From TrEMBL:
Residue ranges of every copy of the Flavin reductase like domain listed in the record: 9-164
Pfam families: Flavin_Reduct
InterPro entries the record matches: Flavin_Rdtase-like_dom (IPR002563), Flavoredoxin (IPR052174), Split_barrel_FMN-bd (IPR012349)
UniProt keyword terms in alphabetical order: Flavoprotein
Family (UniProt): Belongs to the flavoredoxin family.
Cofactor: FMN
Ion transport as UniProt keyword: no
Protein name: Conserved protein of DIM6/NTAB family
Molecular functions per Gene Ontology: FMN binding
Length: 188
């Protein structure tokens, strides 16, 4: 029997994405988000939700752009730090030793050491309550050669993205392949 636990921000899994922006003075900044995901196929879009109080919020509004750098498990400490510190108070790139890379397509930086990057121009913003949802059109994806498969597609097992468990506030890695989508369900 299922037990009601109330209305909470629990959905599984949630991503661990690092959103890159420039502040009003052109300083690179980044913050970790979990309230995010794919939201449209055509045009290809993602959404990220931020509180107005975050320093990155102003950067997205100012520049009408953001990036999403997807860290591998090797950078879980740095990804967590990007969510703990504020760009108002310190240079997160300098503190972590990671490299801000200027996007050639949008007015936002990405994390050079992270293997997979989405470059987005802002299409819409929606004030929902405590958070504002930013919808960004993906104008390009950059991936390290080492995380691509033989067909040039990203391989999740090579990227090794970090998953966030909002209930217990813990990071996880991905598990093993369970079967091919749009196929395994045909097996009876």
């Amino acid at each position: 029997m299922k037990r009601s636990i109330g209305a909470k921000t629990l959905a599984f899994p949630t991503p661990t994405w690092v959103v890159g922006t420039y502040d009003m003075n052109g300083k690179p900044n980044a913050m970790t988000v979990a309230w995010a995901g794919i939201c449209c196929s055509a045009p290809p879009c993602i959404s990220v939700s931020l509180r107005k109080a975050t320093y990155s919020y102003g950067g997205i509004i100012e520049n009408k752009a953001f990036t999403v750098s997807i860290p591998s498990e090797d950078h879980v400490k740095e990804a967590d730090y990007f969510g703990l510190a504020s760009g108002r108070d310190e240079d997160k790139f300098k503190t972590t030793g990671l490299t801000p890379v200027r996007s050639e397509l949008v007015a936002a930086p990405y994390v050079g050491e992270f293997p997979f990057v989405l470059e987005c121009k802002l299409l819409h913003s929606f004030e929902i309550g405590l958070h504002t949802m930013f919808v960004g059109e993906i104008v390009d994806i950059k991936a390290e050669e080492s995380v691509l498969d033989e067909n040039g597609n990203p391989d999740i097992e090579k990227i090794r993205p970090i998953i966030y468990g909002p209930g217990n506030r813990t990071y996880y890695g991905i598990g093993p392949d369970l079967g091919k989508a749009f196929s395994i369900g045909k097996e009876r």
